[in-house]
Amino acid sequence: MPVTGAVYKYGPSTPNHRRQTSETMPGGLRNPLSLSQMVEKIGSAVHDAKDGAHNKKESLQKKMAEHGLMVPYVDLQIQFIGASGLPKMDVVGTADPYFIANLDDKITFVSTVKQNILSPVWNEVWRVKNVPAIADLEIKVMDKDEGSMTDGYIGKAKTSVNAGARELEITGPLLRRSRGTIWVKIESTPSSDEQPFQYPYLFDGPIRFSRHYSPTVGKLTNLEGDARLYSTWKMYLKGIPLFFGDVYQPWNKSYKAAQSIFQGPTSVAVRSGIQAGHRMLYARTASNGFGVIESAADVLQLLHGGASRPGSNAPAHPSRVKPAVYTYIISSEDDSFRFSETGAAFFVDFASKHALHSNCAEKVRYSGEFHPRPQGGWACFSDDVPDDQVHWELVIDNNSGTYAPDKTMLPALQKLLEYNFPGFGIFALDHGDEELKKSREACRDYALRFRGVRQEELQPHAQQGEETLSHHASVCLSHAEKTVEHAFGGKS
């Protein structure tokens, strides 16, 4: 991500001094600022060119409207088949390619990472409704650099959204040289909505998810069973604007923890730490778990899991729905549904669980907690009954101090989840509702009594000798700051 907020000033000087500061630093080292200025100028030129193209497209739409003509809208299914002829990007190995596709910079699709290959096959599908027929599809092919703040750029391809299969040349950043080809297949049909302009660029599936692991999990030597308390999930839901419109939930100005994040002299440092943790937690790597939600059974699979810590006094149940409470947010940036177990160990030392998931966004679509339960509740359940013979329910709420979501939006939240997860009973309840409290406590009680979960696991905590995500993030931030300081001639 670009680094912002740094301002470097130079005092009055002779022409020779100015020449030295723009090109070199003491000791003859090249000043990275001159390179950054060049990149900034190039970036500005590209931005201006994109703005110009966007303005031309809007001008065309306006002229058509003046003549009583409407730009036709289409529903798209785009299949990203694969690529070949990619350049070798790593000194050791080949490349770890993935791509970022977008339609008119309005909606984005990020693929899985393929490891150590120059001819990746993705076969991933993206459905988007209500797209102007004159839209452009741009695909940026990237090389995943594990452990780096940024990934390598291979090149990009661009095409219209006309129906058909095509082979696109990937052009690189230097003299537009060819860097391989990518194959896509586009199916285009007239928009099925009567007024497609009301909800343009509407994501329509499939519902994809990725599972991410805390970087601290690799530093543990005593972890047994699954690693659920060190995992987060990101899921892309369909049709969020249909249910939420333009309603968002801003950060809660009355909540002390939120104040420490979003206002005051120390808030920048607090945000930096949380955002560093978020980047580590949600990093897209080849080791992520990926999948598509096609049925209620796929959702249940995500909620499987037994005892997550060693020393449990009951056998693990890795293939059964775990009675657990989850913290979630629905992002205002990409409409993704992000969640993890509320007792996740990486929450230790963070000012806000929800801010960690949202990357300190000043607003979200919604946030709170949820838990699964068998019909009738956990208090009436027995492990003698197989999970596939149970009608499952999701109980979701607005229990979030950081964003204090408006309870009047709970019916919209319920309809959204019913739309995305057919086959589930969905109950959206206010955080103060007695039914919610009773259901949540029954869930936790079942975990304690029958699934070997320990009381301390219900809230974030670290075992002796464990490195928390907060500490890991602060060490990485400190290292990055020292690197920048050294590059500009400061103390190392």
UniProtKB/TrEMBL annotation:
| Domain C2: from-to ranges | 56-174
State the source organism's domain of life.
Answer: Eukaryota
Q: What is this protein called?
A: C2 domain-containing protein
Species classification: Eukaryota, Fungi, Dikarya, Basidiomycota, Agaricomycotina
Under Pfam families, the record lists:
C2
Q: Which InterPro entries match?
A: C2_dom, C2_domain_sf
Q: Where is this region: Disordered?
A: 1-28
Q: Which organism is it from?
A: Psilocybe cubensis (Psychedelic mushroom)
GO biological-process terms attached to the record:
positive regulation of gene expression
